[in-house]
Amino acid sequence: MSSLDNAIERRGITRATLGPGVVLGALGILGFSFSFPATRLAVADFDPWLVAFGRATGAAVLAAAYLRATRAARPTPAQARSLGIVALGVIVGFPLFSSLALQSETAAHGAVVIAFLPAATAVAAVVRAGERPSARFWVASAVGLVAVLAFIGGSAGPELTASGPQAADLFLLGATALCAIGYAEGGALARQLGAANTICWALVLSAPVTASVAVTAAATTGLHAGATAWLGFAYVSVISMFLAFFAWYAGLARGGVARVGQIQLAQPVLTLGWSALLLGERVTPLTVLTALAVLASVAATQRAR
Fold first, then answer.
1. Cβ-based neighbours of 36, under 8 Å, separated by 6 or more
2. How many CB atoms sit inside 10 A of residue 139's CB?
């Protein structure tokens, strides 16, 4: 063991903290942080089903070209099953539910609701790896979830008590849960297949479904949209659904799903900034306080875990 390794062990620092996993993860999150504002722009003119499945279809074309150019080996049956979980979480579930939610909610609101995603990803990684976290971990995770639910109740106000939970918030919570599963499964699988191959195979294997839905949505709702909607759609197709995953899954594979997954702490803050800057959305004090409370709870999960 080198002197650097000894120093790292003595100080309780892992190579995941210092190595490329963090850098790659940060690049992925930077790409993802524009996703909600871009989706908000896209669903202003496009049907949300078209945005969700169309972005996956466009990304699948790029993925097929990449796999062909690199002559990537086909996944084994076991890996294909894992890719199905990845596809359910990040190719179908999260894009669809977030697109449906952002029809009626702002990107800033969505950023706060999914701020619990880092802790959810850690929980998914713990469950998949068979670890046994402490009671403090679960308490901290529960506090973050309660903060999100309180924000939903506080922002909806009388509408919530009169008609029950708003559909947009339920969509966002569902998107968070599915995305966490897809992140954890994909990060673990990337250690075998590689980061790029993992997202590319997931896109290609799910293409028959995503393309069918996208074509149907386009035929029934049309493709008439303004320039900003097309820009938003292009961003979520090329960056959010494709290139950002190259860096993100590589970071999770190299640095660990639970640890590198906490870089998502920066995503809601960045998304709030982009929402205000690009969309002119108002960021309320309640939004900021909730974001801080969720970030604190996620930080606590890491200390407890």
1. 98, 102, 107, 110, 111, 271, 274, 275
2. 13
